[in-house]
Amino acid sequence: MRKHLTALTMAICGGLLSFASQAQISGTSSLTATFETNVVPGTCTAEIQDSTGNASTEINFGDVFKSDLTAKSRIEAFKLNFSNCSGVKSATVQATPGAGISCSTGSSDKFGSTHGTAFEVWKGLADTGTVLNCTTQPTQNVTISSGSGSLDMNARIVIADGKTIADVTPGAVTSLVTFMVTYQ
C-alpha cells in the first residue's frame, strides 16, 4: 500500500508540475513597450569677448583719426566664445547687418555706418584672414571640443564704399552686426 501511495503522490506532484509547466508555456506571447524622450537641439552659451577676454557687446575703437582711416590701421580684435556646449560638435557663424543697418553699398563687403565710415569684420587677421562679407554673408565654421570653442575675429573701421576721406565727418560712429549661429 505504501508503494501505491508513493506512486499516487508522485503522480499528483508530477501532474502539478506538468500544470505549472503548461502555464508558463501558454503565458503571454508578446509584450509592448512605449519609449519616450524629448529630442532637444544642442546648444552652447555664446558671447562676444573683447581683446582682453572680457564679455562685451560693444567693441570700442576709442578715438579714430582720418589718418587711421586712410591707412586702414584701426583694428580691434575680438572673439566669439562658445562654452557649456551640450550635444554640439560644431557651429557655423554668419555676420549680418543688425537692425537698422545695411551694407556700405548694395554690393559691399563692409557693414554700413555713419559719417562716411564703415566696418570690415574678419575671421582671423585683417587682410590675411577671411572677410565676413556683408552682402554675401558666408558662414564660418567653429569646432566645438570638450564643450567649448572660439572664433578669433578682427574688426576694422574704414572709409565707406563710394566715399573719400573728404566725405568723412566728425561724430560718433556705430554699426550693429548680428552674428547668426547654427549648431550641429
TrEMBL record:
Cite a single GO BP annotation: cell adhesion involved in single-species biofilm formation
Q: Which UniProt keywords apply?
A: Signal
What GO cellular-component annotations does this UniProt entry give? pilus
Range of residues in the leader sequence: 1-23
Q: Which InterPro entries match?
A: Adhesion_dom_fimbrial_sf, Adhesion_dom_sf, Bact_Fimbrial_Adh_Pro
Tell me the PANTHER family matching this sequence: FIMBRIAL SUBUNIT ELFA-RELATED, FIMBRIN-LIKE PROTEIN FIMI-RELATED
Q: What is this protein called?
A: Fimbrial protein
* Species name: Enterobacter sichuanensis
